[in-house]
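Example 716, ligand coenzyme A.
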Amino acid sequence: MAHPQDIVHQLSIRDPEAFWQHHAQAITWHTRPSRALSRQKKTLPSGTTHDHWSWFPDGELSTTYNCVDRHVREGRGDNVAIIWESPVSGRRETYTYRQVLEEVEVLAGVLHEQGVRKGDVVVIYMPMIPAVLFAALAITRLGAIHSAVFGGFAAPSLAQRIEAARPRAVLTASCGIEGTKGPLPYRPMVEEAIKLSASKPEKVLIWQRPELGWGKLDHASGQRDWQELVQDARKRGVKAHPVPVKSTDPLYVIYTSGTTGLPKGVVREAGGHAVGLILSIRYLFGVRGPGDVIFTASDMGWVVGHSYILYGPLMVGATTVLYEGKPVGTPDAGAFWRVVERNKVNVMFTAPTALRAIRKDDPENKYFEESGKRGALRTLRSLFLAGERSEPSIVETFQTLLSKYGAPGAQVVDHWWSTEVGSPITGIAQHAEEGLTDKKQGSPAAAPLAIKPGSAGKPMPGFDVRIVDDNGKEVPRGTMGNIVLGIPLAPTAFTTLFNDEERFYKGYLKRFDGRWIDTGDAGYVDADGYINVMSRSDDIINVAAHRFSTGAIEQAILMHPFVGEASIVPKQDSIKGHVPFAFITPKHPPTGGGNNKQRLPARAPDALFNEINSLVRTQIGPIASLGGIIQGVGIIPKTRSGKTLRRVLRELVDNATRGEFDAAVSVPPTVEDAEVVRAAREVVREYFSSEKVKARLICYLPSMGKCPIVSLIQAS
Ligand code: COA
Ligand code: AMP
């Protein structure tokens, strides 16, 4: 008999209407939807028509009501909703559902008094403190739309997002506390971003942290003290009731990197999000409701934070752990396991990068073993990994530990998804029978499917996953190809981009003539139907499970007066998976011949590296810091139409990090000059072949005789 996970998936694809109407019962609706799915055609201003779909189109709901009020009304007000663990500030706080309601209804009242109304956008730029969760819930309570921006983004990146989202207000804090570096003031970033943005928010609410205040508020530009406003509102009994919105109204917009420099505003619709997220947290994560504790080590600036720190856990009435700290260094590699122990965590979610960092600092797994031997990790039923590919060795290491010290049958679950889709596309369901729409459909007590290290599991309900070639034709099992999704996507997924339907079509549908949604990932399905996500097929790179556009990094680098051309590719990194690596061409190249060293710019190459890297850090953020630069002339291959062949450079760098300098790379017949590929290969060989050289920047000039390298710089 088929496993319940396979049965559930088939049910969801064969009859989405029946499947999702059944699961819509998990929500308290203000207006119950009469149907789950409607399909339409959309015509773009350019005249192109494409398929469009809506989930629960005539339903109405309040997500905050479902996350908070209903638990209090139904007698669960004293259950713990949020535990805040902040090893960096040495604090720990807990909030019951009743306390969360008290915080959120007053804050929503404050926001209303400050002019925020249903349909307005409010940007959140905050560290990982409880106020960030109250902020999102309060905005949602008013039927407004939040747009959270990761606190590690620099002012110009924040400005881009403010300009695109046009928020009525910005909610921020006086500082973030990043690792062991101490308080990082947010004021310069927020003020600079607002200065740079053409759109100006009317109000900026500032949560004052004891570690570092904001300084004197600039009232004229709308700055207000958050806590003062709340205190005052509380005295006056100001509160806001939940405002229901249409199922298809946006709950939030989250900006993510596209292939160009401009971020894409992914729109999350309220109804589909609520229904799909409740199913995913119960079905895939096995977090079924009150009494279950989930610890998601992410940030509210990312989709993972939205879905599995905030909305998923609270919708089912579970306890969520909000963590302000790092996997290592705050204070050590045992930090995560202590959080699990102290809070009796049942389900944990992190990125493979974090586990690699832990493994590096604690190669013997001393911390895990210590806690495990005390029996302190017995509550842990699963460890979820996503954000980037999990190499088999990391899964195997932690599966061995979990089998020894976790709950019986505990699994390490690699699962694959993206900002666009809002919940996992693949994984191993921890409570598969939750998805069945009729008890007779499968054997209810089945254990989860076995994991296969290296694979991200099997499809989740509503996601029709296919592997196709570049013409959109499906390929046989076991063959690598583009991973695409059939329409409609599952209810948590986007159906458009904020104010940019045309880009939605061009970015996701056009490549395969509107037939499939392009995920931008490449991989294969094995004989048992498990999906293996191997790499990106587009110009996006993944650094420490954060996603960046190569185009955006190139734009930052091109601001340097020396740089005429830049091409960014991922370089493998033992902790972060990948880091950005740059090929640059000087704007005014030296001509070659004679003493070329003297003809290079007077500035020392390591200084140049620092200047270029600091542009990336100040334009995008320090999380996008470069892992190296090669500069030269005639080393960036192009097609005859002038398109940069990043893929060729990427393959050269990839091969070189494995020591395979002569391995074949796929050079398209349209290459303008095959000699450039040869030159690129030589310079990459030079950069990566010397073990003693931790070169960060090397220079290359063509037509120089034997060795094209003119300087090789030792890293500082
Ligand atoms: N605010 C301000 N700066 C930030 C920041 C934030 N929220 N987050 C990171 N930075 C800065 C860091 O201070 C660092 O600055 P530096 O170059 O001046 O030292 C830089 O950005 C890079 O940070 P990070 O990528 O976090 O590297 P790290 O070396 O400090 O830490 C890891 C390495 C592996 C511990 C860290 O990358 C990590 O925790 N990764 C897991 C990420 C994750 O969970 N992703 C999942 C998202 S779903
Ligand atoms: P983001 O939108 O920032 O969440 O990034 C999504 C991208 O991260 C995906 O499109 C993949 O490229 C990558 N990703 C996420 N999870 C996985 C996984 N489990 N395996 C491989 N890649 C992943």
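Summary: The chain is about 30% helix and 25% strand.
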